[in-house]
Amino acid sequence: MKATGIVRRIDDLGRVVIPKEIRRTLHLKEGEPLEIFTEGGGEVVFKKYSPVGEISPFADQYAESIYRTMGIPTVICDKDVVVSAFGVSKRELVEKPLSNDTVKVLESKNGYVGGGDDPRGEIELVSGSGRVISCLSPILSDGSSIGAVVTLRREVGEVPDETEVKVLKTAADFLSRRIDF
């Protein structure tokens, strides 16, 4: 654990303020859910809650099914990191933070289809990974984007076909319903 040197007191309602600098660094927004863990020695740990992370075993199976059926590397991510990957090295992507461009696409809630005339150009899934997004379909919950189902480009200049786009939209819709269930 990394010490920050910041000390806060618990108020009379049991609240603790998380300093703005830490919220900014961790991309915590007002109303964002946090999980609370306790560890030995009286430690309390706050962790960003990920509904997509909660269904990661299921997400793994879904990503594997898409990869085996379509032969396209498939990734499922939450708003911050890759949760599962198939068709690429898991060590290379899983638990790695998404690139800023990927986060912007997620926040737009519109999805992304690579190639063609998209003004955003190529979008790398994880900065420095060299893995470029072919197609991304957001996983929505209560109108907010909480993650995405993503296929990765296999070759330079490859453009996703209509079937790939529809499969990803179906997968994202299914996972959305699974999470909201």
Describe the structure.
With 181 residues, this protein is of the alpha+beta class. The protein is built from six helices and seven strands, in the order H-E-E-H-H-E-E-H-H-E-E-E-H. It has helices at residues 20-25, 51-54, 56-70, 90-93, 100-108, 162-180, and strands at residues 34-39, 43-48, 74-78, 82-86, 112-113, 133-141, 144-152. It has a five-stranded antiparallel sheet with strand order 4-3-7-6-5. The protein has a two-stranded antiparallel sheet with strand order 1-2. A hairpin with a 3-residue loop joins strand 1 (34-39) and strand 2 (43-48). Helix 3 runs antiparallel to helix 6. The mean pLDDT is 85.
Any key phrases for this structure?
five-stranded antiparallel sheet, two-stranded antiparallel ribbon, 7 strands
What is the gist of this entry?
The chain has 181 residues and is of the alpha+beta class. It has helices at 20-25, 51-54, 56-70, 90-93, 100-108, 162-180, and strands at 34-39, 43-48, 74-78, 82-86, 112-113, 133-141, 144-152.
SSE map:
Elements: H1 20-25, E1 34-39, E2 43-48, H2 51-54, H3 56-70, E3 74-78, E4 82-86, H4 90-93, H5 100-108, E5 112-113, E6 133-141, E7 144-152, H6 162-180
Antiparallel strand pairs: 1-2, 3-4, 3-7, 5-6, 6-7
Helix pairs in contact: 3-6
Output the radius of gyration.
Answer: 18 Å
- Helix fraction, binned, reads 25-40%
Q: Tell me, briefly, the overall form.
A: elongated
Beta-strand proportion: 15-25%
Order of helices and strands: HEEHHEEHHEEEH
| Major sheet | 5 strands, antiparallel
In terms of structural class, how would the helical and strand content be classed?
alpha+beta
Chain-averaged pLDDT = 85
Contiguous low-pLDDT stretches (5 residues minimum) are none
- If strands are numbered along the chain, what order do they take across the biggest sheet? 4-3-7-6-5
Helical segment count: 6
Gap from first CA to last CA: 35 Å
Number of strands: 7
